[in-house]
Design goal:
Oligomer: single chain
Membrane topology: Multi-pass membrane protein
Organism: Pseudonocardia zijingensis
Shape: globular
Keywords: Membrane, Transmembrane, Transmembrane helix, Transport
Helix content: over 70%
Strand content: under 5%
CATH topology of the largest domain: Growth Hormone, Chain: A
CATH superfamily of the largest domain: MFS general substrate transporter like domains
Number of domains: 2
Order of helices and strands: HHHHHHHEEHHHHHHHHHH
CATH architecture of the largest domain: Up-down Bundle
Strand order of the largest sheet: 1-2
Protein name: MFS transporter
Distance between the termini: 20 Å
Radius of gyration: 21 Å
Number of strands: 2
Structural class: mainly alpha
InterPro entries: Atg22-like, ATG22/LtaA_families, MFS_dom, MFS_trans_sf
Amino acid sequence: MRPSTPSVDRGRVLAWALWDWASAAYHAVILTFVFSVYLTDGVGDGTPAASAALGYAMGAAGLVIALLAPVIGQRADAEGRRKFSTGLWTACAIVATASLVTVRDDPAYLWPGLVLLAAGSVVAELAQVSYNAMLAQVSSPATVGRVSGFGWAMGYLGGIVLLLLVYYGFVAGDGPTAGFLGLSREDGWNVRVVALAAAVWFLVFALPLFLRVPETPPVEPGAARRGLVGSYRALAADLVALYREDRRTVYFLGASALFRDGLAAIFTVGSVLAVGVYGIRPGDVLLFGVAANVVAAAGALAGGRVEDRVGPKPVIMVSLGAMIAVACVLLVASGPALFWAFGLVLVFFVGPAQSSSRTFLARLAPPGREGELFGLYATTGRAVSFLAPSLFGLFVWIFDAQRAGIVGIVLVLLAGLLALLPVRPPSEIPGAAPTG
């Protein structure tokens, strides 16, 4: 007889997941679809130099995150300040987002805008580190998969709602005013106001987490607070101990860094391929993005429920295998209809892969060290974040065809799949069948 599933506080789960919904304001609207495009195509006049500058700024942000994320997570765990850390960096992300309203449509504002965008990326990622670690506080071992999947789905759905509001309220139309709000397009005002709207969205929907989810107790009560150098020393000692105690955690961090880079590249280059290869009209790319978020959210929810029965590794393996197969079909497919059909199948499996990757680590993490490990999770991901974009560009250059760039992404996903194969899954899940 199957044991009953331990209950969780649904109010806390919802409050926790609403942070994912809130952070879509930065990740989906500011960084992916709206403000990064405004900076390169508007403020930067669409020049290659502007796109290169964006790459430099994001590369610098990635380096800062790689250096700070594990220490931030480790200190938050040790001092019992996980929620405080999430709140601090969330507040910084909101301020950075709102500050983008000052970036006028003038080339002189390109680098100030990029600095704000990079700073926002850093603090949003640092907030995500402690937020991910809080997953253990709102779930049980038997429900961590569905709770994580619910959070990812909320992030996707939040992006959908806000993207639609932004498109119809602030962007749509071709006249001197934009959207149903009738905002002036002069000096980029309609896009700059989007930054304020995103900041308000982030603030309002992040609040329930801090009101409803309690702080975690310190792992080292009464210990003196370490300085930055002391934190790195403690981190190094913990890593050595972790490698000796359970090497699969270290191996998983490496494998997940590879396939997560491939997952990120799917969204990064998807719009470029949609227009340049499959004939999607530029105005329809946002609509595909909305549909893709809906499908990815459904995938995350379905994958979370399956994971609580079979464990995270099979979900990740099946998802990666399916994405590789569909990407190979897209490599030879043509036309908008086939792109819509197979593109949506592809993103359906992105959600489960992302969610189960998070829960794989959450199940492996020793109690009280979740923040430190999710900091390393962020760091290892950033360490190879150049790989998929570089291989995409390399194959485009070799074959002089945008379509060929898909091969680069497939290779990264395949490398992540092969690296994950020998990694032993977390121990048996309470109430689930053995995972092997």
